[in-house]
Amino acid sequence: MRNGRFITFEGGEGAGKSTQIRRLAAALRAAHAREVVTTREPGGTPLAERLRAIILAGKARDLGDFGEALLFSAARIDHIDRIIRPALARGAYVLCDRFADSTRAYQGARGGAGENMLTTLERVTLDGVRPDLTFILDLPPEVGLARAEKRRGQGGIDRFEGEAVAFHAVLREKFLEIARAEPERCRVIDAVKPEEDVAEAIFSACREKWPHTSTEEKKWA
Ligand code: T5A
User: Fold this and answer.
1) How far apart are CA 116 and CA 33, in angstroms?
2) Whose CA is nearest to atom 4 of ligand 1?
3) Angle at CA 99, nearest 5°, toward 209 and 44?
4) Helical H segments across 128-191, by residue range
5) For 100-127, how does the pLDDT look when each residue is reduced to its tens digit (9 = 90+)?
6) What is the DSSP pairing of strand 36-40 with strand 133-138?
């Protein structure tokens, strides 16, 4: 049973995903639409948050790309089972900061994990739970990394922020590749624009995706 709407936000570092999830969630809640669940990956459950801490501290780096992909997937299985699938069954909007496309892009960027292996892993992990709509917030890596750095202040950089700019440039291409391969699901959004403009592009894609939605939800923007 699945009546909910599953929306994921993807893109490079500092692209504005968390900011836009907050905005869309607030708009949906203000419209008294369906229940709205906001969550993130890696994370979203106590076990997945523990795995997040290990991965982002770089403690799993020596496992290599496929080994890290397995850890992200283990966290994802727990997240799907405990949070995402039940929320979708209740009819909620689930807004998720990163999901399986991040594994395809980040763990696939160096090519070492093997595309077929990652595709098989994704199929087994998701077990049919796929996003209805995915926003790929696109911007040059230098802009995103600078935003992330500014927001971080004195805090340390994490496992992936520390990668070279060339790695982040490949990531950007990987996300765009995913969008080209799945145009029904993915919308590429120019994330260099001001926050308000990005939000409007996201609202309007949601209205276009679900035009026959309830009267209340039409009041979103
Ligand atoms: N990962 C994750 C994998 O390798 N494989 C996987 O399968 C998964 C799920 C997660 C890391 O794990 C990797 C990817 C990541 O490296 P994270 O801390 O969740 O780590 O990192 P991010 O998801 O990249 O989150 P960030 O917080 O860095 O970026 P956001 O959420 O995209 O950006 P946001 O909204 O926090 O904004 C950043 C700053 O920019 C400003 C904001 O105010 C904020 O200060 N901003 C804007 N400024 C100007 N114009 C705009 N339009 C702006 N929008 C936001």
Assistant:
1) 39
2) 106
3) 110
4) 141-152, 165-181
5) 999 999 999 998 889 999 999 999 999 9
6) unpaired
Q: Is the CB of 39 under 6 A from ligand 1?
A: no
**All domains in the chain, ordered by first residue:** 5-209 (3.40.50.300)
CA distance 49 to 28: 26
Structure confidence by residue, pLDDT tens digits, 8-28: 999 999 999 999 999 999 999
Q: Which of 8, 9, 13 to mutate to test the pocket of ligand 1 (most atoms within 8 A of CB)?
A: 13
- The 10 Å Cβ neighbour count of residue 175 is 25
What is the Cα–Cα distance from 25 to 132, expressed in whole angstroms? 16
Give the least confident one: 54-63, 86-95, 203-212: 203-212
Alpha carbon 3 to chain centroid distance? 21
Q: Could you give the CA distance from residue 89 to residue 76 in angstroms, rounded to a whole number?
A: 17
199-to-47, 64, 206, 212 alpha-carbon distances in Å: 32, 36, 11, 21
Q: In angstroms, what CA-CA distances link 54 with 57, 59, 108, 136, 148?
A: 5, 6, 20, 26, 20
Residue 19 one-letter amino acid: T
* CA gap 65, 58 in Å, rounded: 12
